[in-house]
Write a structure and sequence with these properties.
This protein has about 300 residues and is of the alpha/beta class. About 50% of the residues lie in helices and about 25% in strands. Strands 2-1-3-4-5-11 form a 6-stranded parallel β-sheet, with helices on both faces. Strand 6, helix 6 and strand 7 form a beta-alpha-beta unit. Helix 1 packs across helix 10, helix 2 runs parallel beside helix 10 and helix 3 packs parallel to helix 4.
Length: about 300
Amino acid sequence: MNTLLKTVSAAALGFVASTGLAAAQDDTLKIGMTFQEMNNPYFVSMQEALNEAAAQIGAEVIVTDAGHDVAKQISDVEDMLQQGIDILLLNPTDSAGVESAVRMAKDQGVIVVAVDANANGPVDTFVGSKNRDAGYQSCAYLAEALGGQGEVAILDGIPVVPILQRVEGCKEALAEHEGITLVDTQNGRQDRSVALGVVENMIQSHQNLAGIFSVNDGGAMGALAAIQGSGRDIKLTSVDGAPEAVKAIADGGPFIQTTAQFPRDQVRVGLGMALAQYWGARVVPTEVPIDVRTVDAENAADFSW
């Protein structure tokens, strides 16, 4: 965690310690968090960290899974508002589509913090990874591993802001190498089984394909299976730092790098920002970026979320 983030976190959580616990004793704080999906260890670890933090302050937590359905996510927020939540932590499945849910929450005086992906509307604070940096780091690593030469493809995902930023960062890094050619971009929907079929088609369509960047580790695991099944020498990089991906990198083979995010830190800092505002802080950052870190064969054995 960088120095700025440590300072912000310490200030927010220090404020909580001095004023929030007393408030919580008088009236149980109710925190709602809606996730874009829960079929992903990244978000599971985020929920675990939220539950741990909430338990420390005696708060009640309501968690919902949108399953990448924006209509369900809006309905879930409506239900949480009816249950009287004080804080909404929002991990949007569609940044623009959830704006009505953000406005509903704000109309009821609820503090709204977007986590991992930002949302349209009057969000109080956004806490998320430096996703453009993540895409850049992974694709710079891939290009260098290929010696600055060869055909590469992007395994894209659902068009939310973090994914779009990763692709932008990737393309920026690839463009710095004249010998690298981006020959294909296809949507694996950040899903292992979907990505498997998509990458199999990529490999069949591009006989000289030398590298693939996946926008997340879930899709990368499907890509890895397709690469291994093909018997081709194709290098793979990704974003997330998921345990399964980190193990694959440590074991050696086509999967050579992932740019790790820190989901537990994101939700802890997001909750800290919400609590600071809820309990009276007048100045709270509108955005808190969380650093990312390269994980490769050199440090994979020692890395975990």
